[in-house]
Write a structure and sequence with these properties.
Layout: H1 16-32, E1 36-37, E2 43-45, H2 46-52, H3 58-63, E3 66-68, E4 74-77, H4 82-91, E5 101-110, E6 122-131, H5 136-153, E7 159-164, H6 171-183, H7 191-199, H8 210-217, H9 228-243, E8 249-250, E9 262-269, E10 280-284, H10 288-291, E11 299-305, H11 306-315, E12 328-332, H12 335-350, E13 355-357, H13 364-374, E14 378-382, H14 384-389, E15 391-396, E16 402-406, H15 410-414
Length: 417
C-alpha cells in the first residue's frame, strides 16, 4: 500500500473543524488590523531563500527542497513565508502604495526536518507582514496581534519572549565579541556549533544542545552592544508593549533561526513549554528587501505553524465548533421513488439547502441508519404511495416525530428562517 510520505499527513474530515477554526480566526484578526490576503507560489527561485534566510542556517544548509525544472532553473519548494511576500512586494510595485503595506498569508511550507510532534516536512504557516515603515509602534502592533490571535483561539497562558539583535551597524561588533567568547569553548560545543562559529556565530545562542546552552548562558548579550538608534528603538517597543498591557520577558539568547532579522525579535511560547513548544515568532527585517534588489525598506512580521497550534488546542481540550452538517437526508423505496428523490434533492440544493441523497440498494432501515450518522436534521422518505399522492414523509431526526407534507412545500417548510 502507498502511504503519505514521511513527515506529511492527510487532513481527514474529522480534523477539518480545527483547521477551519484556526484559519477563520487568523483571517478575522488580519481584517481587524487592516491586513490584506496574499497568495504566493508553492515554489520559488531557490536563490530567494539562500540569499535571504542565510547560509549557515539549518533551513538553507539542511532542510530546503531544491530541484531543477526542465529548463535547468534551480527552484525550491517554499521554505518560509516572508521572503516570497517581499519578492511579491517588489515584483508588483507595492512600494508605490501608501506605506506600510500590510499583508497576510496562510499556506504550506516545506522543510526536510526530522518529523516529531508539531513539526512536519510539509507544514502550514499563517503569517502577517507590515512593509515600508520603521516606526517601533508597528513592532508592538505585530506582537499585540500575535497575542490576540492565540487568545482568540482560547490558548491562554502564552508568554512573549523579546530581544533585540541590533542592525548591520552594531551587530558586527557584537559578533566579534561573541566569537571571542566561544573561541575558548571550540572543543566543547556540538559539531553544528563548531560550524556556526565560523559561518554564523549568532546562531550559537540558539543551539538546543544542553552543553551548548550552558555555554550560551555566559555569552555576552546582544542588547549590551546596540547602537544608539537600536537602543532607542528597543526601548520604544518595550514602552509601547507596557502601554498595551502586554507582558513580556527579555530573553538575551533569543535570535530566531533566519538571518534576515534585525532589531526586534520575539517568540510566543505556551504553558508547559518543551523542546518544540514555540507557537510562533517574528520580528524586524529591515534589510531583506534591499537584499533582493529593492530600496532600503523597513519591515516587521510574524508567523506561526498551524499544526503546532492545533496540537496545543487538543492538549488543552479546547471546545472547537463543529462544521455545519447537512440539513436533509432523502431516502426512498422503489425505482419511481428514487427518481422523485433525486429531483427533490436537486430542488433543495438549488434553494441552498444542504442535502444528502441516498445511493445504492440499501433497505429503508439501512438508509435511515445512514441518515442518523450523517448528522442531518431532517429525513425525507418517499415510497410508491408518496409518489402517487405527491407528498413526502418528513421526519425530525432529533425527536423522531414525523408527518406527511406536500412535495411542493418541502423547501419552504425546511429552509431555515
Amino acid at each position: 500500500m502507498y502511504k503519505a510520505p514521511r513527515g506529511t499527513f492527510d487532513i481527514l474530515p474529522q480534523e477539518h473543524p480545527y483547521w477551519k477554526y484556526v484559519e477563520e480566526r487568523a483571517a478575522s484578526l488580519c481584517r481587524l488590523y487592516g491586513y490584506q490576503p496574499l497568495n504566493t507560489p508553492i515554489f520559488e527561485d531557490a536563490q530567494l531563500f539562500t540569499r535571504t534566510v542565510g547560509k549557515g542556517t539549518d533551513i538553507v544548509d539542511k532542510e530546503m527542497y531544491v530541484f531543477q525544472d526542465k529548463s535547468g532553473h534551480e527552484l525550491a519548494l517554499r521554505a518560509e513565508g516572508t521572503a516570497p511576500v517581499c519578492r511579491a512586494y517588489l515584483e508588483h510595485g507595492l512600494f508605490n502604495l501608501a506605506q506600510p503595506v500590510k499583508l497576510y498569508y496562510i499556506g504550506p511550507a516545506f522543510r526536510y526536518e526530522r518529523p516529531q510532534a508539531g513539526r512536519y516536512r510539509q507544514h502550514h504557516q499563517f503569517g502577517f507582514e507590515a512593509l515600508g515603515e520603521a516606526d517601533p509602534v508597528l513592532d508592538a502592533e505585530v506582537i499585540e496581534m500575535a497575542c490576540r490571535f492565540f487568545l482568540s483561539l482560547g490558548l491562554y497562558g502564552v508568554s512573549i519572549q523579546l530581544n533585540s539583535i541590533g542592525c548591520r551597524l552594531c551587530r558586527p561588533g557584537y559578533l566579534e565579541v561573541l566569537t571571542r567568547h566561544y573561541a575558548s569553548y571550540a572543543n566543547s560545543v556540538c559539531p553544528d556549533c563548531k560550524a556556526r562559529l565560523t559561518k554564523n556565530p549568532q546562531r550559537l545562542l540558539d543551539c538546543k544542545n544542553a552543553s551548548c546552552q550552558e555555554i550560551a548562558k555566559s555569552a555576552p548579550k546582544p542588547s549590551d552592544y546596540l547602537c544608539h538608534d537600536c537602543q532607542l528603538h528597543f526601548l520604544s517597543v518595550q514602552e509601547f508593549l507596557v502601554a498595551l498591557s502586554i507582558p513580556f520577558q527579555l530573553n538575551h539568547r533569543l535570535v530566531r533561526g533566519l538571518d534576515y532579522y534585525t532589531r526586534t525579535v520575539f517568540e510566543v511560547e505556551p504553558e508547559g513549554k518543551g523542546g518544540q513548544s514555540t507557537l510562533g515568532g517574528g520580528g524586524r527585517y529591515d534589510d531583506l528587501i534591499e537584499t533582493l534588489g529593492g530600496n532600503p525598506t523597513p519591515a516587521v512580521g510574524f508567523a506561526a505553524g498551524l499544526e503546532r497550534i492545533i496540537l496545543n488546542l487538543k492538549r488543552q481540550n479546547s471546545d472547537i465548533p463543529a462544521l455545519p452538517r447537512p440539513l436533509v437526508f432523502v431516502a426512498y423505496l422503489g425505482p419511481e421513488a428514487k427518481v422523485e428523490a433525486m429531483k427533490i434533492a436537486s430542488q433543495l440544493r438549488k434553494a441552498e439547502i444542504a442535502t444528502i441523497l441516498a445511493a445504492g440498494d440499501k433497505s429503508l432501515k439501512g438508509q435511515m441508519k445512514q441518515a442518523g450518522s450523517s448528522g442531518s436534521t431532517y429525513a425525507l422518505i418517499l415510497g410508491q404511495e408518496e409518489v402517487t399522492n405527491r407528498n413526502v414523509v418528513l421526519r425530525d431526526m432529533r425527536s423522531g416525530e414525523q408527518r406527511i407534507i406536500p412535495l411542493a412545500d418541502v423547501a419552504m417548510m425546511i429552509k431555515p428562517r
